[in-house]
Design a protein that fits this description.
By secondary structure, the chain is an alpha/beta fold. It folds into 2 domains: about 5-85; about 85-175, Oxidized Rhodanese, domain 1. The protein is about 45% helix and about 20% strand. The strands form 2 sheets. It has a 4-stranded parallel sheet, sandwiched between helices. Strand 1, helix 1 and strand 2 (about 25-30) form a beta-alpha-beta unit. The two termini are about 15 Å apart. About 25% of the residues are buried. InterPro entries: DUF1638. This is DUF1638 domain-containing protein. Pfam families: DUF1638. It comes from Desulfofarcimen acetoxidans (strain ATCC 49208 / DSM 771 / KCTC 5769 / VKM B-1644 / 5575).
Length: about 180
């Protein structure tokens, strides 16, 4: 029997890489839905209902305030991780947070930031600087799966005006959660 996963498109590259040889059907939702909880709830409901009662797992326990109940009502399971960053970075996050006020970024976030912040939240550069001004740094988690575009990093820096650091991480935490 093919297992099913419902996940945010933010971690598409990582999931596709880890599960490429597995009998798994992965359905991705648009990452920009996180800025509109009503639209996110509607899409989660629609996507879970399409899974027709099959065994499925939903990633991201805190991506919507009602997600755990929504999944439980449909007989699914939820991975015990707060969000995509927690899935990738795991317990290293608390240690890193203690160093500086950090906003985390993945290659998926880097690809989708315009859809999320500009189109979804309607932030112009002033809004971005006000909202990102709280952070001391942006930490880009590089899994090594796909090349990171230097121009994209520069564009995001120009938008936020917060220094961006790149850290190489392994996919061990996500792989362990998927087991």
């Amino acid at each position: 029997m093919c297992k099913k996963i419902l996940a945010c498109g933010i971690i598409k590259q990582e999931l596709d890489y880890l599960l490429k040889d597995k009998e798994v059907e992965i359905n991705y939702i648009d990452p920009a839905l996180h800025v509109d909880l009503n639209r996110l709830k509607d899409e989660l409901s629609r996507s879970m209902d399409q899974m027709n009662g099959d065994t499925f797992v939903v990633l991201g326990a805190q991506c919507h305030p009602e997600i755990e109940n929504m999944v439980a009502e449909r007989g699914g399971q939820i991975i015990k991780a707060k969000n995509c960053i927690d899935m990738l970075f795991g317990n290293k996050m608390a240690e890193t947070d203690a160093e500086a006020r950090t906003f985390y970024l993945t290659s998926g976030w880097l690809e989708n930031w315009r859809k999320i912040f500009v189109e979804g939240l309607k932030w112009d550069e002033i809004d971005a600087r006000q909202n990102f001004g709280f952070y001391d740094r942006i930490l880009l988690l590089d899994t090594g799966i796909s090349p990171i575009n230097d121009e994209a990093i520069l564009e995001f820096f120009e938008y936020t005006q917060v220094p961006i650091e790149i850290i190489t991480i392994e996919l061990d935490n996500l792989a362990k959660l998927l087991e």
